[in-house]
Amino acid sequence: MADFDLRALEIFRTVAHEGSVSCAAQKLNRVQSNVSTRIKQLEEHLGKALFLRHNRGLTLTPDGEVLLAYADRLLQLSTEASEAMKKGVPRGVFRIGTMESTAAARLPAILSRYHALYPEVRIEIETDVARGLTRRLLNHDIEVAFVAEPVAFDRLRTRGVFEESLVLVAPPSLPPLDQPSEISGKTIVAFEVGCAYRRYLEDWILEAGIVPGNILSVGSYLGILSCVAAGAGYAVVPQSVLDTVSLTGAIRCYPLPGRFSRITTLVAWRDDYRSVNFDALLDLLPEHDPGRLPLVKNDTAEP
User: Fold this and answer.
1) For the segment 144-187, what is each residue's pLDDT rounded down to a tens digit?
2) Could you tell me the pTM of the whole model?
């Protein structure tokens, strides 16, 4: 093995992602002995152990983690080169990162249309908070990402695609809000640090002079809305997410005021990245979304 064999790197990456030789062999449509042999040959070529072997399967060694990052980049470059040589027909793997809200409310119709037009593209969706998505993008773990504004990295380019109306949601068990100060000391239900909507909520609380209570970190919008409906606290969510669920009587909704009322979702990509897969996606995305009419405060416990 002279330098890196792309097939060996693909096998290595699949084993790393699947955590076992048997699962990787099934996904690659290869026999297990072949996968094991290729991993052993790669380790011998590098003079490094790439996996820790235990009863639960395989985990990467520190050297394996380093190689995986390079394998992702090399295989992506190979895919891009192959696309460029195939008359611009979208095909192959296309890794898209997105905030959960965008994945749930904005992308399904777009990706359905994309799949109908370009069935040879295998789309892989990864969800994370905006900060995590930016990190994955810069690390070449994904090709493009849907993140909330702002994005302040010289290596990234962006385009506004959706405008979201932000809504404070409250449990119906508490009296209707007349003043923002009434939520002082109350628990806030939100995603982990790094979520753009949590940042907007925290900025609004600071500007409104609200004294925050505890923050309950929850990993999904379903979990957040369920916690609010159960009376655990307040949250800020995009109206587009509320439009996808049935919550009649379960929460009360209040639009955030002024500059906090809306936030733009951007599609972001590295400035050195371009592919026919991405160009095809851009053609299906709006330049911007005019958004919805301003929301009216709802005291009837309906969204």
Assistant:
1) 999 998 887 788 999 999 999 999 898 887 778 777 778 888 88
2) 0.68
User: What is the residue type of 158?
Assistant: T
The CATH code of the domain at 165-262 is 3.40.190.10
Nearest one of 166, 295, 177 to 237, comparing CA atoms: 166
The fold for domain 6-83 equals Arc Repressor Mutant, subunit A (1.10.10)
